[in-house]
Amino acid sequence: MLQDAEAAPVAQSLDKEQVIRAVIDEIRPNLRRDGGDCEFVEICGNKVMVRMSGACVLCKLSSATLEGIQARIIEKLGEFVRLVPVAGAQARPMTPGRH
Protein backbone atom coordinates (compact mmCIF):
# COMPACT_ATOMS: atom_id res chain seq x y z
CA MET A 1 0.00 0.00 0.00
CA LEU A 2 2.81 2.42 0.78
CA GLN A 3 4.15 2.03 -2.76
CA ASP A 4 0.82 3.22 -4.20
CA ALA A 5 0.92 6.33 -2.00
CA GLU A 6 4.46 7.08 -3.17
CA ALA A 7 3.63 6.50 -6.83
CA ALA A 8 0.76 9.02 -6.88
CA PRO A 9 2.93 12.15 -6.47
CA VAL A 10 5.30 10.90 -9.18
CA ALA A 11 2.39 10.35 -11.58
CA GLN A 12 0.97 13.79 -10.74
CA SER A 13 4.38 15.34 -11.35
CA LEU A 14 4.65 13.63 -14.75
CA ASP A 15 1.14 14.79 -15.69
CA LYS A 16 2.00 18.33 -14.61
CA GLU A 17 5.17 18.26 -16.68
CA GLN A 18 3.23 17.03 -19.74
CA VAL A 19 0.75 19.90 -19.42
CA ILE A 20 3.57 22.44 -19.02
CA ARG A 21 5.44 21.07 -22.04
CA ALA A 22 2.22 21.13 -24.09
CA VAL A 23 1.60 24.79 -23.25
CA ILE A 24 5.17 25.74 -24.16
CA ASP A 25 4.82 23.79 -27.42
CA GLU A 26 1.62 25.75 -28.22
CA ILE A 27 3.41 29.07 -27.74
CA ARG A 28 6.73 28.06 -29.29
CA PRO A 29 5.82 28.88 -32.95
CA ASN A 30 5.12 32.51 -32.00
CA LEU A 31 8.41 32.77 -30.13
CA ARG A 32 10.37 31.19 -32.98
CA ARG A 33 8.74 33.51 -35.49
CA ASP A 34 10.41 36.36 -33.61
CA GLY A 35 13.75 34.53 -33.31
CA GLY A 36 13.35 33.28 -29.74
CA ASP A 37 12.38 30.17 -27.84
CA CYS A 38 11.40 28.85 -24.41
CA GLU A 39 12.54 25.50 -23.05
CA PHE A 40 11.16 23.59 -20.05
CA VAL A 41 13.95 22.83 -17.55
CA GLU A 42 12.37 21.39 -14.40
CA ILE A 43 9.64 21.63 -11.78
CA CYS A 44 10.54 22.43 -8.19
CA GLY A 45 7.40 22.57 -6.03
CA ASN A 46 5.20 25.23 -7.57
CA LYS A 47 8.11 26.75 -9.51
CA VAL A 48 8.51 25.92 -13.18
CA MET A 49 12.03 26.61 -14.44
CA VAL A 50 12.32 27.60 -18.08
CA ARG A 51 15.19 28.77 -20.23
CA MET A 52 14.56 31.61 -22.68
CA SER A 53 16.84 31.68 -25.71
CA GLY A 54 17.52 33.58 -28.91
CA ALA A 55 15.81 36.95 -29.25
CA CYS A 56 13.84 36.32 -26.03
CA VAL A 57 16.99 36.72 -23.93
CA LEU A 58 17.36 40.47 -24.56
CA CYS A 59 13.74 41.26 -25.46
CA LYS A 60 12.08 44.00 -23.40
CA LEU A 61 8.80 42.08 -23.62
CA SER A 62 10.18 38.78 -22.29
CA SER A 63 8.60 39.36 -18.86
CA ALA A 64 5.20 39.82 -20.54
CA THR A 65 5.83 36.64 -22.54
CA LEU A 66 6.65 34.73 -19.33
CA GLU A 67 3.51 36.10 -17.66
CA GLY A 68 1.43 34.94 -20.62
CA ILE A 69 2.95 31.45 -20.58
CA GLN A 70 2.49 31.28 -16.80
CA ALA A 71 -1.18 32.32 -17.07
CA ARG A 72 -1.82 29.67 -19.72
CA ILE A 73 -0.14 26.97 -17.62
CA ILE A 74 -2.21 27.97 -14.56
CA GLU A 75 -5.36 27.86 -16.69
CA LYS A 76 -4.54 24.36 -17.98
CA LEU A 77 -3.35 22.93 -14.65
CA GLY A 78 -6.01 24.53 -12.48
CA GLU A 79 -3.38 25.38 -9.85
CA PHE A 80 -0.90 28.19 -9.26
CA VAL A 81 2.63 27.83 -10.56
CA ARG A 82 5.34 30.44 -10.94
CA LEU A 83 7.44 30.54 -14.08
CA VAL A 84 11.09 31.19 -13.24
CA PRO A 85 13.58 31.91 -16.03
CA VAL A 86 17.01 30.35 -15.60
CA ALA A 87 20.11 31.40 -17.48
CA GLY A 88 22.79 29.51 -19.33
CA ALA A 89 23.25 25.83 -20.03
CA GLN A 90 22.94 24.78 -16.41
CA ALA A 91 19.50 23.96 -15.03
CA ARG A 92 20.35 24.57 -11.39
CA PRO A 93 22.64 27.15 -9.81
CA MET A 94 25.89 25.73 -8.49
CA THR A 95 26.03 25.07 -4.77
CA PRO A 96 28.68 27.25 -3.09
CA GLY A 97 31.89 25.30 -2.67
CA ARG A 98 31.05 22.82 -5.43
CA HIS A 99 32.50 23.06 -8.92
Automatic annotation (TrEMBL):
<protein>
    <recommendedName>
        <fullName>NIF system FeS cluster assembly NifU C-terminal domain-containing protein</fullName>
    </recommendedName>
</protein>
<comment type="similarity">
    <text>Belongs to the NifU family.</text>
</comment>
<dbReference type="GO" id="GO:0016226">
    <property type="term" value="P:iron-sulfur cluster assembly"/>
</dbReference>
<feature type="domain" description="NIF system FeS cluster assembly NifU C-terminal">
    <location>
        <begin position="20"/>
        <end position="82"/>
    </location>
</feature>
<dbReference type="InterPro" id="IPR034904">
    <property type="entry name" value="FSCA_dom_sf"/>
</dbReference>
<dbReference type="GO" id="GO:0051536">
    <property type="term" value="F:iron-sulfur cluster binding"/>
</dbReference>
<dbReference type="Pfam" id="PF01106">
    <property type="entry name" value="NifU"/>
</dbReference>
<dbReference type="InterPro" id="IPR001075">
    <property type="entry name" value="NIF_FeS_clus_asmbl_NifU_C"/>
</dbReference>
<dbReference type="GO" id="GO:0005506">
    <property type="term" value="F:iron ion binding"/>
</dbReference>
